[in-house]
Q: What sequence folds into this?
């Protein structure tokens, strides 16, 4: 760091060599022209932040966490798979189909579709809670066919919901593509 005396000595040495005149009025424009002519302008690409992918993963994890919490809330509850080997295959089919649909939805998630996906996850949680009640009813009823049909219907409602979400996502994508093509 320079001391005060060093700065004064510097100005004493440079006295008469520094220009104290005001620059001409067109000085700034000439300076900018020279600057632009010597350096080509590089446009830096604007990088979009893709925050929807981590958000979609977080939503999926929240759903899996929610399902795992409610999966065995009642130890006396019976699964559809406990009724018969055929019902076990039915439950496996529905579970695999639901997982596949959820994976496809998360793969197509965008900021425009995130609200639809969040709503679907909430509705799936409600259907899961209903299914847990049905599991308790199945244990209490001694495998009443009406409860079994209600459980199958619950699985079908979940798949229908996910298919509707996929259709809605496709509609949003088509609308965005249409908007982009008209611009």
A:
């Amino acid at each position: 760091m320079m001391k005060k005396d060093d700065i004064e000595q510097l100005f004493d040495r440079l006295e008469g060599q520094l220009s104290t005149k005001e620059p001409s009025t067109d000085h700034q424009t000439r300076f900018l022209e020279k600057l632009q002519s010597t350096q080509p302008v590089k446009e830096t690409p604007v990088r979009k932040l893709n925050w929807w992918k981590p958000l979609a993963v977080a939503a999926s994890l929240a759903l899996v966490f929610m399902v795992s919490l409610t999966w065995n809330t009642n130890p006396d509850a019976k699964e559809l798979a406990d009724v018969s080997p055929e019902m076990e295959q039915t439950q496996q089919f529905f579970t695999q189909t639901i997982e596949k649909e959820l994976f496809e939805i998360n793969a197509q998630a965008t900021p425009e579709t995130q609200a639809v996906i969040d709503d679907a996850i909430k509705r799936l949680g409600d259907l899961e809670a209903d299914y847990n009640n049905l599991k308790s009813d199945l244990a209490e009823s001694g495998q009443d066919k009406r409860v079994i049909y209600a459980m199958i219907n619950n699985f079908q409602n979940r798949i229908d919901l996910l298919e509707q979400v996929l259709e809605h996502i496709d509609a949003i994508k088509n609308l965005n593509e249409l908007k982009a093509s008209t611009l």
In short: The two ends are 58 Å apart (CA to CA). The mean pLDDT is 79. Helices lie at 4-14, 27-38, 52-71, 85-107, 114-141, 145-182.
